Amino acid sequence: MMTKKIAVVAANGRAGSLIVEEAVRRGFDVTAIVRGENRTAAQNSVIKDALELTTEDLAGFDAVVDAVGGWTPETIPAITDAGIHLADVLVGTDVRLLVVGGAGSLFVNPEHTVTVDMGPDFPDDWKPLSAAAGKVLAHLRETDGLKWTFVSPAADFQADGERTGEYILAGEEFTLNGRGESTLSYADYAIAMVDEIESGDHVAQRISVVSK
């Protein structure tokens, strides 16, 4: 099998760095796209802002992972801006775009009309973050000629959680594990993301991941 060649945008972040680590562990040829010094295990690096990336910059990769995050009012808009920009520059190419998404846009009813972030218990502080990721998902759904996959984590997404090597792969609906929990470590999320890059099973789909 040919070595997978992937790029991880915002690779120095918490999710991005673990995705890089998992991909390198499996023998992928990984390029970290970062705004400053590469602090990851990636073999290669490109120092460039996500919004400045061009179609030519991303040519030749099998997949590009959008791991751009934000936690403050100043940085949250970057989630939407980067996701939409990467989608637009990859339209019409064979390069897959995999987006580190959020749980807030998962559906809680069979009709797919109500999402997690509409619930009364959803924290107000999280709503801008959920909305930013939701805008990216909406743009992906509306974009033709793009090989995208949006990967939503569990509601309790644990940066320092254990790498168990196991997870439940679900779809558009909010899913609980056998203990009635929606939890997931960043490390297990990275495994699921790299599994999806390897399999290519969910092009033009949103999937979700929860711990076993």
TrEMBL record:
GO terms for molecular function: oxidoreductase activity, acting on the CH-NH group of donors, NAD or NADP as acceptor. It comes from the Bacteria. InterPro entries: NAD(P)-bd_dom (IPR016040), NAD(P)-bd_dom_sf (IPR036291), Polyketide_Oxido-like (IPR051606). Residues 11-195 form the NAD(P)-binding domain. Coiled coil: none annotated. It holds the Pfam family NAD_binding_10. CDD domains: BVR-B_like_SDR_a. This is Putative NADH-flavin reductase.
